[in-house]
Amino acid sequence: MERSVSPRPAATVMNGAIIDAIGADIISGVLQPGSRLTLEGLQETFGVSRTVVRDCMRILESMNLVYSKRRIGIVVQESRHWNWFDARIIRWRLNGPGRDEQYRTLTELRVAVEPMAACGAARHAGEDDRKALVELAARLRLLGEEGRLDDFLAADIAFHTLLLRTSGNEMFASLDSVVAEVLTGRTVQGLMPDHPREVALRGHEQVARAVAGGDGDEAMLQMTALLEEVRAAVA
């Protein structure tokens, strides 16, 4: 089917906004699998050049949301083909009707991966990274107790990113943007308490201490406990 919406002024639409608009419609089901899009129709809808539309479609195609078929046009893919780990797809799901399901699946992914990543960091992280992790945990407590949620989010992303990147496992490290999106989503959508719970602040400190001390088993145990608190919070 053709997308039918009123054209918007070109001056107010950037490539990212076009990608967001179409991507979110695909993720939310407004555009169903098999729906057809044409370059001409998209040009008219968004008021942009054919080159801009082509560039946007290439990006959506790289995410496996659409594919091009000769003499048919651009076709919306079935969800089984989507790149579920793409940060933009995660963001669109967290902002759409699939939010609860996305939080559930992301939390399950974190429970499966991050305890092992913490264990790996305890074994592989360099001295500077171990110190940085302890400092980030202390900063999380300070920011959390002061209720500075935006700054807390930045420190929380840095904490979990450092764990993943120092785990000694390149596949774990590649999930840093996935974890960043779910942490960001909780804050942006008002799902974080004004002051993070003591169990969460203490959990980060315990993980950091275990990693700094090179105790992989304890780091795994403490990260598991921390993520169980997250699981309960988003349930």
Automatic annotation (TrEMBL):
<dbReference type="Pfam" id="PF00392">
    <property type="entry name" value="GntR"/>
</dbReference>
<dbReference type="InterPro" id="IPR008920">
    <property type="entry name" value="TF_FadR/GntR_C"/>
</dbReference>
<keyword id="KW-0238">DNA-binding</keyword>
<protein>
    <submittedName>
        <fullName>FCD domain-containing protein</fullName>
    </submittedName>
</protein>
<dbReference type="InterPro" id="IPR036388">
    <property type="entry name" value="WH-like_DNA-bd_sf"/>
</dbReference>
<dbReference type="InterPro" id="IPR036390">
    <property type="entry name" value="WH_DNA-bd_sf"/>
</dbReference>
<dbReference type="Pfam" id="PF07729">
    <property type="entry name" value="FCD"/>
</dbReference>
<dbReference type="InterPro" id="IPR000524">
    <property type="entry name" value="Tscrpt_reg_HTH_GntR"/>
</dbReference>
<dbReference type="InterPro" id="IPR011711">
    <property type="entry name" value="GntR_C"/>
</dbReference>
<keyword id="KW-0805">Transcription regulation</keyword>
<feature type="domain" description="HTH gntR-type">
    <location>
        <begin position="12"/>
        <end position="79"/>
    </location>
</feature>
<keyword id="KW-0804">Transcription</keyword>
